[in-house]
């Protein structure tokens, strides 16, 4: 009886270790960080809140891990808060979902980083949107610590003056931007006090201008064992930045400027291996946008 009990225990331990090896320790979906209150650029002494979103279709109960860079932070709630923020708390924040199961911990993929700047100076340039599409308007706000009687605000791009405003307004509006408007923006605020003119300048802020549909890049996969020796895969990679709901993209593939088939919603095509000049074209009919590789 004793040896049989030992045998049962050994079998149980082997089965349990096998289950641990089979059960995944991570999910296929990635956590997302969003800002709840405040701004990605704040003055020291101010506060902001971030939320960790777990895109779990089963709506399970999750715990939360927070990171600044590679360092795990002590906060474990869905909402992360910076109170009375310090300049040293600037950094790239990310989160990860974690839950305990009968066979161990399961974690989501860590979120993409959300960069926070805590500024100890007297002026900050804030963006309405982190990235702006070609043709859209760029809205910026020059914030001043305190309530000085502002009489002039100047906007710069890469150190070159872009716009001058007289009066107390701290907002800038640039309509219909192009790729040439991308750069590092800063602002200078001036005011008069006690018969003296005072002036402060913000730290430069990078503004990204994105095309709705960027130039495609054609990849030719010639060594794919699943296709066989006589086939290769043409892959048309594009960066498509249209806001949701985005109209569909049509793809066209060419050899020596000759169309290889009808338009397709797939960005790849299997063709016979043959030498020649290959290219692809991406088109969004509803937006009347066409890009060639």
From TrEMBL:
| Residues in Ig-like domain copies | 24-96, 113-190
Q: What is this protein called?
A: Fc receptor-like protein 4
Listed GO cellular component terms? external side of plasma membrane
Q: Which GO terms describe its biological process?
A: cell surface receptor signaling pathway; immune response
Q: Which Pfam families match?
A: Ig_2 (PF13895)
Highest taxon listed in the record's lineage: Eukaryota
Name the UniProt key words of this record, in alphabetical order. Answer: Disulfide bond, Signal
Q: Which organism is it from?
A: Poecilia formosa (Amazon molly)
């Amino acid at each position: 009886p004793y040896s049989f009990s030992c045998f049962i225990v050994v079998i149980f331990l082997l089965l349990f270790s096998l289950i641990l090896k089979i059960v995944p320790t991570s999910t296929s979906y990635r956590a997302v960080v969003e800002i709840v209150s405040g701004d990605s650029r704040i003055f020291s002494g101010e506060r902001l809140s971030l939320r960790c979103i777990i895109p779990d279709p089963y709506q399970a109960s999750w715990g939360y891990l927070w990171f600044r860079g590679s360092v795990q932070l002590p906060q474990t709630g869905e909402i992360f808060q910076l109170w009375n923020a310090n300049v040293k708390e600037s950094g790239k924040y990310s989160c990860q979902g974690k839950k305990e199961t009968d066979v161990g911990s399961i974690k989501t993929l860590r979120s993409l980083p959300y960069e926070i700047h805590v500024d100890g100076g007297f002026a900050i340039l804030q963006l309405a949107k982190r990235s702006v599409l070609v043709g859209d308007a760029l809205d910026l706000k020059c914030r001043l610590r305190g309530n000085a009687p502002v009489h002039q605000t100047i906007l710069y791009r890469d150190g070159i003056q872009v716009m001058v405003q007289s009066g107390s307004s701290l907002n800038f509006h640039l309509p219909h931007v192009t790729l040439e408007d991308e750069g590092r923006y800063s602002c200078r605020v001036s005011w008069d006090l006690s018969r003296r003119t005072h002036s402060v300048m913000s730290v430069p802020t990078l503004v990204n201008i994105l095309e709705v549909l960027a130039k495609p890049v054609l990849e030719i996969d010639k060594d794919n064992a699943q296709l066989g020796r006589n086939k290769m895969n043409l892959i048309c990679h594009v960066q498509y930045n249209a806001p949701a709901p985005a109209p569909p993209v049509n793809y066209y593939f060419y050899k020596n400027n000759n169309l290889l088939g009808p338009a397709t919603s797939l960005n790849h095509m299997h063709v016979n291996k043959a030498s020649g000049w290959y290219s692809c074209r991406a088109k969004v009919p509803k937006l009347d946008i066409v890009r060639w590789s």
